[in-house]
Write a structure and sequence with these properties.
Elements lengths: L32 H13 L4 H11 L24 H20 L2 H13 L12 H4 L5 H15 L9 H4 L9 H22 L8 H19 L2 H5 L2
Length: 235
């Protein structure tokens, strides 16, 4: 599957503009094995040029490579191929949280965040961060993960004077006070870090799945407070 396709989800036919739409009907719009098989057949038979194949593959999230040896086996490409947590958690959700946080800061807050991050003592072996305010587009997966891990501590250096009046009006957080808004943002970063740790752990305790499920539910609820729904839909 292609992550930047118009229909790039492994499990349903949702478009890029509908991603994050909690009202989207994934049951009636599921992407089944036979549907993808038919699309792959069309890709290999209906188009005579490489450019036409690329356009079709980009729209439907298909690979234009030659037949996969697994095609000869009895398997379901949607149920038996796992999702890519790196794209879901780091390049999408973590990035949305980072961008939404920066959108709430005024110019003074952005400078304070960048300065506090540049002065922070990092774990042994970590490289210094590029300025996330101006260079977020150049971040790799690991950069998003590392920034989320330390971001809550960086945000503790900010106060209510670093928040934008205009941006605060877009948030749906109970209690309009700026200290409460900043507290909720820090909690969201903490939950995001906990979710990444749980999902990327090399091993898991017997009750680890229950813990992971719990923290993901808390994160989902908190993201709806801190991030605008339109931002969640567009990823």
């Amino acid at each position: 599957m292609r992550h930047n396709a118009e229909h790039g989800c492994r499990h349903c036919m949702v478009t890029r503009s509908q991603l994050g739409d909690i009202e989207y009907d994934i049951v009636n719009n599921s992407r089944y094995h036979h549907i993808t098989s038919n699309l792959l057949f069309r890709l290999r038979t209906d188009f005579q040029t490489k450019a036409a194949q690329l356009r079709f593959a980009s729209e439907w999230g298909l690979s234009i490579s030659s037949d996969n040896p697994l095609d000869e086996l009895c398997f379901d490409r949607h149920l038996q191929v796992p999702l890519d947590p790196a794209h879901v958690l780091l390049q999408n959700i973590s990035r949305i949280l980072i961008e939404s946080t920066f959108a709430v800061l005024n110019k003074s807050g952005e400078q304070k965040f960048a300065d506090a991050l540049s002065r922070m003592a990092l774990p042994r072996g970590w490289s210094r961060f590029a300025d996330p305010i101006t260079h977020l587009n150049s971040f790799f997966f690991s950069d998003y993960g590392r920034l989320v891990m330390v971001g809550a501590f960086v945000l503790l250096h900010l106060d209510r004077m670093h928040l934008s009046d205009t941006a605060l009006l877009r948030l749906k957080i109970s209690g309009s006070g700026r200290p409460q808004v900043l507290k909720e943002i820090i909690r969201c970063w903490t939950l995001m870090a906990q979710t990444n740790v749980a999902c990327f752990a090399s091993s898991m305790r017997q009750d680890g799945y229950n813990d992971m499920y719990s923290v993901i539910r808390q994160l989902a609820s908190q993201l709806l407070k801190v991030c605008r729904r339109q931002e969640l839909r567009n990823r």
